[in-house]
Amino acid sequence: MPSFGGLLIVVAVAFAAPFILGLFPKVRLPSVVLEIIAGIIIGPSVLAIVHIDQSISVISVIGLAFLLFLAGLEIDFGKLRGQVLHLTLAGFALSFVIAIVVAMGLKASGLIETPLLVAIILCATSLGVLVPVLKDAGQISSTFGQLIIAAGTIADFGAVILLSIFFSGEGGIGSTLLLIGGLVLLGVVVFFAVRGAERSSVISLDLIRLQDTTAQIRVRGAVVLLIGFAAIAEKLGLETILGAFMAGAILTLLDRDEQMTHPEFRRKLEAIGFGVFIPVFFVASGVNYDLNALLASASNVIMVPIFLAALVAVRGIPALLYRRVLDGRRTAVAGLMQATSLPFIVAATAIGQELDLISPAEGAALIGAGLLSVLFFPATGLSLLRGTQAPPEPEVEEDSSPAMAM
Description:
Number of helices: 17
Strand content: under 5%
C-alpha cells in the first residue's frame, strides 16, 4: 500500500521553501535551490527521515513530465525568427562543439565516464529560472531579453533532442531518429486534428462552456496531451521527457487564444505543475542526492567548481556572437545567464545513473554545479546590469520567414 508519511514531509518542505523565501523578499534565490537543499537534509545523506517510496516516486515522475511540458509551453515560436534565430542557433551549435571538447578533456582527466552525455548536459539553459529574473529586471522585451529567451528555448529543445537521439532507443542512432521523426509526425497530425476540431462552432462553444466549470475541460485536455505523448515516447523506447516537451510545444502552437476566450488557462496549468507536482520532483531529487558520494574524496568535491567552469565555457563563450547587437557588458551578462542550468541537469543525471553512464559522485557534482549556477549567475548578471545606462539597442532584424517549428 502507498504510504503518505514520507510524502507529507516532502510536500511540507515544498510548501515551506518558497514561503520562507517570501518572508525575505530581498533574497533573490530561486525556490528550486532551497527545495533541493532541503531534500538533501531530510534525505538519507543527512537526517534520513525520508526515503523515496512508491507515493513520492509516482508524483516525482509526473513532476518531471510537467516540468518539461511547461518548458515546451514557454516556447515563443513567434520570436524564433530573423537575426535572433540565426544568432541563437549559431550559439547553440558552438556550445555543443565546445561541450564536446570540454567533455573529452574531462574524460582524459578521469573525471567523467561518458563524455557525450556530459556534453549534452552542459548545453542546457534553465529558461524557467531566467524568465522571472528578466521580468523583474524589466528586460523581457528588450533585445537582450529576446536573445536570452530564444537562446534558452533552443538550448532546452536541443538538449532534450540530443539526449533522446543518443541515449534513447535500442537500435542505434538511425532507428532512434526514425522513432523521433514518427513522434514528430504524430504531433503534426494531432495539431491539425485539434485545430480542425476547434473550427467547429459546436466544439468551440462546448469548450468555452466547460472550461471554467468543475469539468475544467481545457486542463483535462492538456493533461491528456501531456500523458499521451509521454506514454507514446516511452512505448517507442524514447525518453518520456521528449514526449512531455513536445506536448508543451504543440499546446503552445494550438493555444493562440487571440480572442482571449480562456486567459486563465496557462495559469491553471502552472498552478497544477508548480503548485503540486514539480516541487515534489525537486525535493525528491534532493532526497536522492548522494552527498556521501560527493564528499567521499577531495577529488569528487573539486569536480563541482570544474563543472561550474565548464558551464561558463560551454554556454558563456558562444554569447560573444551577440556582440553584433549588444554592448560588451550585456554580452558578458548574457553569457552568465545562459550558463544558468539546473532542471535539465537533474533530469539528465537521473537518466544517466539509471543507464549506469554516470557515477553517483559525478551526478552529485553536476547537480552541485547546477545549484551554484542558479544561485550566483542570475544575481551576478542583474548586479552588472543594475545602475548602468545602456546605449540605445539596435533593432533586431526580423524576416518574413515562418517561425521555427518542430
